[in-house]
What does this fold into?
Amino acid sequence: MWDFALAFVALFVAVDILGVIPLYLSLTGGLSGEARRRLPRQSTLTATAVGLGFLLVGDAVFRLLGITEADFQVAGGILLLVLSIHDLLSSRRADPTALLTVGAVPLGTPLIVGPAALATLALLVQNYGYKITLLALGANMALAFLVLSHADKVGRVFGQAGSEVIAKVANLLLAAFGVSLVRRGLVDFLKK
It folds into this structure.
């Protein structure tokens, strides 16, 4: 149970669904009610498919390229650190996209499941195995669906400033998780 909680929280921080809300609201503002109601399902199904696809082929790609757990911990930690620092220091801007695909791209990927979430998934599999990682992914995607389904309400509760604060705190936690991964990877290197 503890491993699931750790995996869930790590993936929750990487997905940062609360930080996606301001972008979600700005990207979907011009949609009709029915089209807007379909987006949470489209977004989370896309994100889940991308996450599952990465879980299915990620290990094979690592073996093919000779990437070890320590290699990926250091690389993934650096990536998470850089992405979180970038998000901490910049403001989010919505890119103009076709309204028909906004649920898949950019919402499903890269906003919900992007590089940070993919790196986290790969590291979670190495640390906790497939079962716990799949459960953590499923729980996070269910939560993402619920949050996006009620994004208007959540956005009103936190407001623009509150949503931005939540996003920044999540990125700070992601940076700390990235540093932790680099440290663990370097310890593994030094043991060999």
User: Anything to note?
Assistant: Residues 151-191 form the longest helix (41 residues). The chain has a mean pLDDT of 83.
